[in-house]
């Protein structure tokens, strides 16, 4: 880069925080002492070297980061793509493809409406073509294209007058102030416009098969049902990468996954990490680093409120009353997770601690069903209008802890007259259209509802954000509540945390009453890797641990 270039003065690095977005300031909702133990690190190598094998319990299948996808897909996407700026474990924004815009540097107007983004001028796509403002413009427009199966339109649909000023600068205005947008941009990977040239259906571009990004690693190959390989991007603009080759291996049986971690067949165990029942054993392993780390995600039982009988609030409430959650947490999960009532992490500034506490009460469940007109049938399963009170629950096949919880729930629900059938399937099937287009009855899964540390949940709760109803979003439960819609709109216009807090507290209260899903517990994950791997760090503001894979190296 020329020393006279304006971008040179921005001092881009992956680790240097240039400032926070917005006038109110943003902070991490997790205390520093919850982020894991500090360890002295050896210096990284001068060039990429060696190989790393990462074990996953689910198979990533969506390589275009803007199509409907799940958490595990981002494990690959973080290696291949970059965002304009990133968020650190402490909740600060750092530059990546762009300078962090602030009111102070002229990137955002004081009223939050006018934006000016300044980009690096030394970035290339994996195919050698230059990255430019046209790519950013294309990405933001793709996300709101009504013909594209976008995973997130929230925030992006407010962008107006999007203009490319130069190859390294673009501007836009917001239709209205939207406080969560900085966090949304920090989670928005930029894709290459030129890959879509001449493509009639943007849902079927070559990006689905051969992803091209600006990220620290380049796609090499994918073996369906087995693994995916990426290699170091030697032209990467940022610090790193320090590893030459990374293999993501899919091992759906969590017992087998953990065994391969013990034997050294995999170097790092990622999603769904080490099962809670193996935590004590894992701590005794030689040559391994094992930590219990907090997560912003929660373990849920999602109800499809668009399908009978789970469209009845009384049925959903009865299921929760008949679920002995505390016993499942202690006896099946070994006390590793944290019991909670909210989808927002307990450490968050926006967490509502006053929600009704769950109580295992089979008699209350029976009363709820009696009042709703569900009467016991000849075999004990309740009936109304000639239909049995029966539903199906699904989860990833091979997840032994969830399967044990299913078996436990089957019995406790049957005791109050509810039949729960189990229909598990491989994660690649479960979290495809079955999940994304709300074809399920109920699903036991993990979910991170926040974007970074921002409390906005429009993607998940707005009635218009259900793909099954033609929307673009993550409202898989087809949840609809006009009061929640109104509160989300109101909260998105506010920038002062103290003013936003009561709004999101009320949303938590309504969702807890409506129960479009049961929040079982907040996750604490047991993470493990070979002791010679450096740079691995927890970040509760992202959905998966490969968020800084460019910084990982062996010593």
Compact summary:
By secondary structure, the protein is an alpha+beta fold. Helix content is 22%, strand content 21%.
Textual characterization of the structure:
The chain is an alpha+beta fold and 555 residues long. It folds into two domains: 239 residues, Alpha-Beta Complex (Dipeptide-binding Protein, domain 1), CATH 3.90.76.10; 230 residues, Dipeptide-binding Protein, domain 3 (Roll). The chain is built from 14 helices and 21 strands. Strands 1, 7, 8, 9, 10, 11, 12, 16, 17, 18 and 19 form an eleven-stranded mixed beta sheet that branches. Helix 6 runs antiparallel to helix 8 and helix 13 packs antiparallel against helix 14. It is globular, with a radius of gyration of 23 Å. The relative contact order is 0.17. The N terminus is likely disordered.
Judging from the principal axes of the Cα atoms, what is the shape? globular
Arithmetic mean pLDDT: 90
Number of helices: 14
In percent, how helical is the residue content? 10-25%
CATH class of the largest domain: Alpha Beta
User: Which homologous superfamily in CATH is the superfamily of the largest domain?
Assistant: Dipeptide-binding Protein, Domain 1
Task: Please give the number of β-strands.
Answer: 21
Assess the beta-strand content as a share of residues.
15-25%
Distance between the termini: 31 Å
What is the makeup of the main sheet?
A: 11 strands, mixed
- How many structural domains can be distinguished in the coordinates? 2
Name of the CATH architecture of the largest domain: Alpha-Beta Complex
Radius of gyration computed on alpha carbons: 23 Å
Query: Which consecutive residue ranges, at least 5 long each, have pLDDT under 50?
Result: 1-39
* CATH fold category name of the largest domain: Dipeptide-binding Protein, domain 1
State the secondary-structure class: alpha+beta
For this structure, the quaternary state is single chain
């Amino acid at each position: 880069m020329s020393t006279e270039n304006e971008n040179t003065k921005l001092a881009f690095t992956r680790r240097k925080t240039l400032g926070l977005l917005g006038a109110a300031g943003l902070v991490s909702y997790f205390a520093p002492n919850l982020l894991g133990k500090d360890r002295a690190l050896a210096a990284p190598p001068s060039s990429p070297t060696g190989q790393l094998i990462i074990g996953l319990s689910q198979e990533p299948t969506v390589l275009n980061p803007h199509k409907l996808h799940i958490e595990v897909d981002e494990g690959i996407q973080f290696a291949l793509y970059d965002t304009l700026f990133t968020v650190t474990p402490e909740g600060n924004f750092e530059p990546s493809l762009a300078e962090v815009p602030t009111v102070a540097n002229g990137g955002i107007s004081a009223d939050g409406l006018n934006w000016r983004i300044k980009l690096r001028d030394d970035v290339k796509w994996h195919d050698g073509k230059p990255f430019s403002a046209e790519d950013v413009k294309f990405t933001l427009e793709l996300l709101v294209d009504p013909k594209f199966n976008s995973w997130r339109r929230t925030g992006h649909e407010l962008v107006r007058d999007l203009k490319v000023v130069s190859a390294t600068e673009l501007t836009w205005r917001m239709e209205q102030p939207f406080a969560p947008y900085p966090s949304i941009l920090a989670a928005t990977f930029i894709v290459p416009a030129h890959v879509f040239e001449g493509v009639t259906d943007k849902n079927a571009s070559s990006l689905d098969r051969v992803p091209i990004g600006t990220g620290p690693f380049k796609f090499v190959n994918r073996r369906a049902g087995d693994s995916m390989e990426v290699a170091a991007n030697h032209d990467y603009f940022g610090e790193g990468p320090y590893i030459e080759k990374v293999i993501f291996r899919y091992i759906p049986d969590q017992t087998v996954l953990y065994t391969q971690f013990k034997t050294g067949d995999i170097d790092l165990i990622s999603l769904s990490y080490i099962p809670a029942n193996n935590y004590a054993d894992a701590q005794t392993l030689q040559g391994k680093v094992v930590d219990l780390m907090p997560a912003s995600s929660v373990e849920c039982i999602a109800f499809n409120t668009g399908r009978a009988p789970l469209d009845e609030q009384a049925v959903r409430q009865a299921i929760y009353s008949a679920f002995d959650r505390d016993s499942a947490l202690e006896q099946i999960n070994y006390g590793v997770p944290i019991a909670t009532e909210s989808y927002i992490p307990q450490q968050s500034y926006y967490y509502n601690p006053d929600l009704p506490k769950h109580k295992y009460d089979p008699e209350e469940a029976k009363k709820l069903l009696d009042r709703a007109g569900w009467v016991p049938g000849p075999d004990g399963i309740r009936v109304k209008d000639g239909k049995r009170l029966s539903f199906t629950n699904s989860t990833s096949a091979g997840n032994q802890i969830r399967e044990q919880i299913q078996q436990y729930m089957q019995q406790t629900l049957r005791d109050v007259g509810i039949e729960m059938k189990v229909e598990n399937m491989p994660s690649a099937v479960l979290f495809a259209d079955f999940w994304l287009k709300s074809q399920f009855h109920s699903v036991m899964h993990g979910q991170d509802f926040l974007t970074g540390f921002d409390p906005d949940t429009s993607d998940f709760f707005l009635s218009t954000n259900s793909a099954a109803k033609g929307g673009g979003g993550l409202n898989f439960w087809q949840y609809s509540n006009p009061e929640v819609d109104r509160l989300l709109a109101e909260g998105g216009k506010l920038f002062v945390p103290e003013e936003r807090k009561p709004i999101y507290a009320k949303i938590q209260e309504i969702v807890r009453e409506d129960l479009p899903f049961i929040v079982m517990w907040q996750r604490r994950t047991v993470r493990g890797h070979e002791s010679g791997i450096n740079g691995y760090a927890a970040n509760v503001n992202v959905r998966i641990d490969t968020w800084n894979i460019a910084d990982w190296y062996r010593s």
